[in-house]
Amino acid sequence: MTKSNHYSVFAGSGIHLAFSVMVLAAFFTMLSTIRDISIPILTITLLIGVIYLGIGIYGYQWILARTDLSRRILYFIIQIPLGMGLVFLDGQSGFDFLALLPLVGQSVILLQGVWRQAVNAIILVGYALLTIIVGGGWQVAWANAPVFLAGQIFILVFTQMALNEEKAKQEVQQLVHDLESANQRLREYALQAEELAITRERNRLAREIHDGLGHHLTAINIQIRAAKAILEQNPHQAIDLLNKAEVLTQQALHDVRQSVAALRAPLAEGPLIPQIQQILDAGSNGGIRTSLIVIGNPRPISPQVALTLLRAIQEGLNNTLKHAHATEFQVTLDFESPSAIFLTIQDDGVGGMTSTQNGFGLLGMQERVVQLNGQLDIQSIEGQGFSIRMVLPTEVNYDQNKNYAGG
């Protein structure tokens, strides 16, 4: 970043306005104090004033966009004599030094170190000499020079403070930009980590299907072949082998259903209500009555909210089937609130399942709800069943892959 970018505030209309006001104030003050001025002198004064003002605005703007020192020094080599010319033509006014002060402020912006000090020393000495020449001697110079020096110091300090403030503002803006970039990278890393976790989970389930189902099918194939081989010689033993194959088939079917449910139910695309019904239908096959109650009109929701709801229902159903000894499992989905979605899961089991409070499924459910700025309440009271109450906000950023709650 170049220095002109750091101090861009001084390249706008503000510095031009300040330069114009100070030069014009000195110029008109000078004209108001001159007596019996001749036309040639007035013409020269006006010409110098216009040139000085034009270079101070447009020349400064051009120089500010360049970083080479020689051009910046050349700018002051041209402007200082022009400013001194206006002071020389004045000769009477006590406000003629105003025409030189803009150069002091510009020296802070364009120059550094020794060059800045040299330019300001030249301006001070030149003004003092002009005061001696046109003002009546050393006494006038000693009287006016301290006033001009005080103005110089004030402009130098004020301009430097403004530069420091602008630099600090630029640094803060850069920090904000860097933080936004870092947050964006963190979000991308989080998405990559989530995708990696999903891929690993899918690979794990694929291995389970391969190992479990493959084992069962191999064993079934062996049983059937053995039964065919001894069917004519020993029918009773062949039937026994076929019975074993049937049991293995049921076990394999059960494993397939579990694996497919784990793979498809939470991650399936499409309307939310049918996905919930599929999970509940699978629970009904496990010997428990399931029901779904929808309150209000289903509306579009984000994939994150839909996934969290599906995970919660699946985890609640799994806990009920494993631990609750329940006969009924009920899911209530409430869309009446415009700002939130309410999910209630409950069964009529034995309750008091404190061991499930620290389970990985419930812990993952809680983490998802926290990420969505939602609320989660889990109750498991002995003799009163098991219940989950979840509140998720409606206003969640969702992309083009919208998941709809309606059928």
TrEMBL record:
Q: Which residues cross the membrane?
A: 7-31, 37-60, 72-89, 95-115, 122-141
User: Per UniProt, which keywords does this protein have?
Assistant: ATP-binding, Coiled coil, Kinase, Membrane, Nucleotide-binding, Phosphoprotein, Transferase, Transmembrane, Transmembrane helix, Two-component regulatory system
Using the record's annotation, list all stretches that form the Signal transduction histidine kinase subgroup 3 dimerisation and phosphoacceptor domain: 201-266
Task: Give the Enzyme Commission number.
Answer: 2.7.13.3
Keyword check for Oxidoreductase, yes or no. Answer: no
- Gene Ontology molecular function, alphabetical: kinase activity
What Pfam family is a match for this entry? HisKA_3
Native source organism of the sequence: Thermanaerothrix solaris
Residues annotated as domain Histidine kinase/HSP90-like ATPase: 307-395
- What Gene3D superfamilies does this protein map onto? 1.20.5.1930, Histidine kinase-like ATPase, C-terminal domain
> Coiled-coil intervals in this record?
165-199
Q: Can you say what this protein is called?
A: histidine kinase
